[in-house]
């Protein structure tokens, strides 16, 4: 997968600009707060229909403008694809190859992307919400079934939680089994897809981590192991867990078990990374997981995703910068940084200097 051109109009700090990307390494460089990350964000938005930085789409519209427009001309293994998004306040219109689409699910998979920034350290350091979010974004790009199950599960979960706050206990106990039957069906799909994803992720992450650290450290990725078997067996296990926690759920007023509570564990040299890893170790582990994600996309879709590396180099020492550049060779990568070091990136990298939301000539 490759993005050939990206057009931005009234997006973030861009009034109007067109980017042309090469099939290899593309370096967006310039001083801080000039728009480098905004460009990277636009690419990710067209791939996933969401931003990793904001909750409300209206924040993507340039101050003083009524609407924003972003368009990408890309190539995947099936041919050319054009994706367009027009954002007005919190409303938006998405088009693929000129045809309007009504569901975000219809956007996913046309262009896959993996995004990494210093903020992704949350994947290791923060609570389980961040790790579930990582899995949800990644798996959804290659599995419409997962994305649909996730949407329906969350909707039913909200209804179940609302019911648990009702003061009529007999009504709750009579109604819970109805919600649980539906909840388990979608939960089983989520659990099974996550298990398959993590089974692929673990060996790739271990390999990438060994590469980046020259074998000095070993990374292990360990999922929760509450469930086993096929989707039917997982559904039965979940049904029992929901039933066994009725009293607790009633007391607390929310659903205390299910895939919305699952987690992933990371161990570096056998030690819990979430509790004991240094900043440097955490950074390398998170990057290893993201590079592993790249390989999974290749396995599942038959082609590499677009890799977005936002301000990553400033967080790595020189040996690991060189290792990273070596690893991403051959991938279309959009990398943001403050300085485009010629000795590090090589002569074949395409360099784009950004200043105040505009592409400027590269300074000598």
Question: Your description of this structure?
Answer:
- The chain has 364 residues and is an alpha/beta fold.
- It has two domains: 1-112 and 305-364, P-loop containing nucleotide triphosphate hydrolases (Rossmann fold, 3-Layer(aba) Sandwich); 123-300, Glutathione S-transferase Yfyf (Class Pi), Chain A, domain 2.
- It contains eleven helices and 15 strands.
- The strands form three sheets. It has a six-stranded antiparallel β-sheet, covered by helices on one side. The chain has a six-stranded mixed β-sheet with strand order 8-12-13-3-14-15, with helices on both faces. Strands 9-10-11 form a three-stranded antiparallel β-sheet.
- Helix 4 crosses helix 5 (169-212) and helix 5 crosses helix 6 (231-244).
- The protein is globular and about 75 Å long.
């Amino acid at each position: 997968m490759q993005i050939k051109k990206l057009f931005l109009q009234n997006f973030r700090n861009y009034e109007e600009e067109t980017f042309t990307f090469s099939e290899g390494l593309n370096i967006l460089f310039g001083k801080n707060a000039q728009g480098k990350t905004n460009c990277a964000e636009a690419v990710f938005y067209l791939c996933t229909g969401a931003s990793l930085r904001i909750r409300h789409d209206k924040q993507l519209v340039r101050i003083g403008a009524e609407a924003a427009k972003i368009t990408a001309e890309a190539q995947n293994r099936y041919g050319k694809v054009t994706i367009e998004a027009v954002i007005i306040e919190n409303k938006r219109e998405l088009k693929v190859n000129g045809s309007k689409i009504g569901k975000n699910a219809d956007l996913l998979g046309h262009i896959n992307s993996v995004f990494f920034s210093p903020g992704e350290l949350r994947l290791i350091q923060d609570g389980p919400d961040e790790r579930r979010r990582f899995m949800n974004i990644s798996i959804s790009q290659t599995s419409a079934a997962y994305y649909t199950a996730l949407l329906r599960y969350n909707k039913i979960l909200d209804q179940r939680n609302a019911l648990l706050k009702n003061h009529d206990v007999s009504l709750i106990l009579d109604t819970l089994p109805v919600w649980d039957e539906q909840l388990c069906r979608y939960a089983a799909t989520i659990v099974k897809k996550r298990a398959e994803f993590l089974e692929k992720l673990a060996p790739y992450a271990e390999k990438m981590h060994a590469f980046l650290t020259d074998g000095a450290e070993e990374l292990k990725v360990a999922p929760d192991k509450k469930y086993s078997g096929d989707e039917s067996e997982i559904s039965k296990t979940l049904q029992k867990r929901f039933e066994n926690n009725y009293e607790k759920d009633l007391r607390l007023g929310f659903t205390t078990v299910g895939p919305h509570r699952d987690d992933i564990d990371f161990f570096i040299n056998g030690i819990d990374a979430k509790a004991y890893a240094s900043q440097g170790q955490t950074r390398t582990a998170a990057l290893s997981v993201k590079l592993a994600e790249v390989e999974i996309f290749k396995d599942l879709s038959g082609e590499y995703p677009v890799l977005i590396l936002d301000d990553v180099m400033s967080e790595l020492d020189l040996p690991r910068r060189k290792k990273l550049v070596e690893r991403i060779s051959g991938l279309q990568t959009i990398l943001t940084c403050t300085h485009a070091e010629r000795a590090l990136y090589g002569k074949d990298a395409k360099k784009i200097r950004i200043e105040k939301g505009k592409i400027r000539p590269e300074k000598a």
